User: Fold these one by one.
Assistant:
Number 1:
Amino acid sequence: MKKIVICEKCLGKNLLKESPYTQLCGRCGAVIYRKIEALEFKTASLSFSALIFYAAAVSMPLLSIEINGKSSQLSVFDSVSLLSESGYVLISLIAFLILILFPFLNSSALFLFSLFKLSGSSKAKEALKLYTYLRKWSMLDIFLISAIVALVKISDYAFIEIDIAFGALVVFVVIETYLTKVIKPEYLWELLDD
Ligand SMILES: [Zn+2]
């Protein structure tokens, strides 16, 4: 069956080749289809690694801040509960969902999808549906960028020590970005057509 793919960059229409490897847009040269070998194994190992780094990033302190001799540690959980303690209950709830719950469910759904697909279970479709929906709502990457901007701003008058969980958060965001940008849900849905 011939399939038409719209280029995300120039919106040009491209006819997908029969058994395509990586295919470029005929108009602007952007990648419109990427053939990824052993996709189930890759998504299984990447989403499993993401879950481990997620656990470290969320459970441990990201950094220690010292201002005027007073030192305190800050974790993702702390920043969410601080919001609620300051009276921003709704914002704290939204932060909990997009920074803690959805990133966890998102990586778990992808990991479960890979396991179900590898074991030939029909539940793979349900897990992929959940992943396709949740991936838009996982926003730890935005949290990381905001945290870096805030750190640069307060670094003039505070002593900041980065902890190991901050490194775990960076690795988690790199894995998630790779999963979002390179392994598109369309490729995963194609696995179910086989
Ligand atoms: Zn194009």
Number 2:
Amino acid sequence: MAEPGSVAWPPAPIRTERLVLREPEARDRPAVIELFASPEVGTYIGGPRPRDELERAVPEVPGRRPGHFVVDLDGAMIGTVTLDRRDTERPGHVLSGAGQAELGYMFLPRAWGHGYAGEACAAALDWFAGAFPDESVVLRTQIANDRSMRLAAKLRFSEVERFEEYGAEQWLGVWSPVPPSG
Ligand SMILES: CC(C)(COP(=O)(O)OP(=O)(O)OC[C@H]1O[C@@H](n2cnc3c(N)ncnc32)[C@H](O)[C@@H]1OP(=O)(O)O)[C@@H](O)C(=O)NCCC(=O)NCCS
């Protein structure tokens, strides 16, 4: 995500065939807590967080910041898609050049297996490419995270490298708006 202020945020809600990507609202708080407390969701991203801790820590309007989209299906939050400024201090920063964002996604388990994450991420990437045409997007995921690896391939991320972090094998991929020729 570029520095706040360099592009209008939030954009107008982004509508896809089945979903809306929008800013978080107060009514999303229970779903945000459910997301971070879920053992299935946490399997490859550091584990679930205790529900009582989340009840204390999650603000009334959760996660309102540039690059953070709530994914809404029929008026209810089913997940989040994030595009954040990449932390170059972490492993896997082999790409050079300024302007790099990192894609993240988390969906409630009941929303898995319907193509919603793919649909939402594709829309967020389209928005990003329009707003920041000179920036690439990277994605880091555990290789053991089959669903996430399949999603990365479907979104046309291509492998840059594999590396160890948090005691697990990680995959770093890069996305750019124009598909490679040939
Ligand atoms: C990673 C994650 C978002 C993937 O969710 P997902 O629902 O599997 O991903 P997609 O949206 O790509 O859906 C693909 C599945 O929907 C199915 N599907 C059903 N209807 C579909 C449709 N209309 N269009 C596309 N796919 C459809 C596909 O067949 C596929 O199922 P399969 O994997 O069983 O073959 C989800 O597992 C998750 O939130 N995990 C926890 C958080 C996490 O680990 N994040 C990664 C951090 S980098």
